[in-house]
Amino acid sequence: QAEDGIRDRSPSRGLGDVYKRQLEHFYRGKLFRDGQEISDFVITAHSRDLTAQQAADYFTAVDLGTSNDVGSLDRVSHGFGLHTRRDDVVILSHLRQGPLLVRGHVVTDYHCLVVPRAVLAGLDDDPTSLFALFDRAKPPIFGPSVAVLEPLPWPSRAGSSMERLEVIFDQDPKGNVAAQLLAALIQRPVSVSGFSPDPERRLALAIALRLLLPPAARPVLTFATEVLNGARCGARLKFLYADPYNKPGEGDGVFQANEERLSPAPAPHPYANLLHQQWAGAVSYTHLRPHETD
Fold first, then answer.
1. Is 105 in a helix, a strand, or coil?
2. If residue 29 lies in a helix (H) or strand (E), which one and from where to where?
3. Residues 217, 221: Cα–Cα separation, whole Å
4. Which of 38, 116, 244, 257 is deepest in the core (most CB within 10 A)?
5. What pTM does this model have?
6. Which residues face 256 on adjacent strands?
7. Which residues, other chains included, contact 281 with Cβ-Cβ below 8 Å and sequence gap of 6+?
8. What angle do CA 97, 98, 103 make, to 5 degrees?
């Protein structure tokens, strides 16, 4: 049995033989019986090659700047995160409103994927197809005991990486914002305030920025799209949950999306400058129609 979510097909002979195309995953929330909570926040379900303890250990990598056990997130529909661990594993997280109200509050629910770094590298560090495995509908109700699940199927590649960049090209035709953000992210964590509350747009921007980085730097860009306490969150890119008490981390660059302004202004970086110079050509490329390429 291989570690970290992919199971052996044969003992050697390369990636195609070593790995079965399956990913381990788990849920974290509360257990219920007849619509009533019967547990605190626990691992409520996990795939069969994980134990509940292993899942709980992996969940410690999920970093939203708080204990993650928040009982009232009425303004959050979905939150996504990409988190790293020291053992060559990436944890993808999906925060959403839980299936039931408890004492009038929305209970949070997490679904997490355990992804070996080699798998993400094989997708050119583009996690789009992995995030597509998360069900955007309401989560299942687990209980009264912890459920054992089948692993998730290996995702197919979701289009080209250039398609992922259109979320930036469409909104930033001159590349000014992207150049600022990339220069800052290479140098320090960045907290984003005032960006669209749409969780899919936040996820799309985080993935696009990751893909704009040089391949060797992409693993550094961890992100979370609903950060509940920016001062305590260790993600490199943080979209702040809309709360007046939610502050960015000390030393973070702060991007005010509604003003397209980053403070403090990042020091120039050669890679960001080069990207800015090439931006107009890249924008033209992504908007070519099929008949224009004949």
1. strand
2. strand 22-29
3. 7
4. 116
5. 0.82
6. 193, 261
7. none
8. 105
